[in-house]
Amino acid sequence: MQHDISKLRDQVQQVSLAQKAIESKMDGLRKDVEAKMDGLKKGVEAKMNFLKKGVEAKMDGMEAKMNVMDAKIDGMDDKMEELKINMNKLLQEMVTNGERVVKETHDEKKRNVNHDSIDSNVGSKTHHIRKIYMRKFDGKDLATWILQMEQFFDLNNVQNTQKVRIATLYLEPNQFVWYQWLCSCKQIITWAIFTE
Length: 196
Known about the structure:
The protein is mostly helical and about 200 residues long. The protein has helices at about 1-120, 140-155, 160-170, 175-185, 190-195. It has a domain at about 90-120 and about 135-195. The longest helix is centred in the N-terminal third of the chain and has 121 residues, at about 1-120. The chain is rod-shaped and about 155 Å long.
C-alpha cells in the first residue's frame, strides 16, 4: 500500500509540475499577446494621429482655397455690378438713339407723304397707304402682331421691299433697338428675315 501511495505521490507531483509548466506557458503566451496588443494599439494610434494631421492639413488647405474663392466671388460681384451699370448706360443710350432714329424715320415719312400729296396734285400716280390704326409691337404676342402686319400689307398692296420699313414704324423703342442690332448683323433685311 505504501508503494501505491508513493506511486500516487509521484503522479501528483508530475501533474503538479505539468500544471506549473502549463501555467508558465500560459503566462508567456499572455505576455506575448499583451505585448502584441500594445504594439498594435500604439501602431493604430500612430496611424490615427498621422491621418488626423493629414486631414487637418488638407482641411487647412481647403479653407485657404475657400477663402481665395470667396475673395474671387466678391471681386466678380463687384465686376458684375459694374457691368450691370455699364449695360444700363448702354441700353439707355441705345434707346435714346432708337427714339431719335424712329423720330427721324417718322419725319422722313412725313416728308415723303407731303411729296406724294404734291405729286398727286400734279397728276402723277402714286400709291397711298390707307391710314389704319396698328398697335406697336411691345415684345408680347409676336405671332398676332406679324399676322396683323401681313393683313395690313395685303390690304394696301405693299411691296415686299417696303414691308420691313413700314413694320419698323410699329416697334416700341426697346424692340427698335433689336432691329438696329439686326441691321448691324445683316446687309439685307427682308420681311422673311425680319419675321424669323
